[in-house]
Amino acid sequence: MAGRLDVTLVAGRRPELLARTLASFAEGLFAHFDLAGFHANIDPIFGDASDHARCREVILSRFPDAAISEPRAAGFGAAVQRVWAATRADLVFHLEDDWLLNEPVGPAEVLPLLTGSTKSVALVAREFGWNGRDLYNVRRKRRRFLGIPVGRRTLNVFGTSPRFLDGAFARRCAALIDPALDPEKQMRPPGNPALIAYLNQYRCRFLPTKAGAALITDIGREWRDARGIEKVLDQGVSRWRQAP
Fold this sequence. Notes:
By secondary structure, this protein is α/β, with parallel strands linked by helices.
């Protein structure tokens, strides 16, 4: 796999967070790759029209040739599907608008991991609850027969937090994603059976810092907490609302 990289970004109308995120990843990650394309989606959530315009400016100031989708209605699943389907490179990096990179990352750290059945390399975040030992992101679920434990089932876990993706894999996922559902939740049972069946053929590798710590930091949670905004899941669809 070559080092040319398509970047995908899903964002809301949060220009200050977006500026911090792009500055962090531009310096610590994008600068070390040969960028092929930048595909962004700005959903009309959180801010107003002026915040939306500022997000466009933030993106274009760093990536003048960026392709930016601006749907009339917000949809997390549709946004991920849209930007992943637009990629063309063999290597894709997916980004959300509320993360910081804690250590530089280049091809030498990533490309050797994306081989064989490994189609995704997830940058470790504290929220993963990673034990510091497992190489791959898996979930082990106990099997039962007539209420009696009879072993464990291993499920390969994928998501939409910042990560590298095999390009063909990302585009096949885009074809299977239900745009009406939360993209991450539909990757796990009961979710989207066709997408889950495809994903479970492959593996997602963890990438921590060289010292084994979190490689990225979530800055969106503090932003939401300060504004009393919470995320709720309603029949597979993610919605944002003011906390009661």
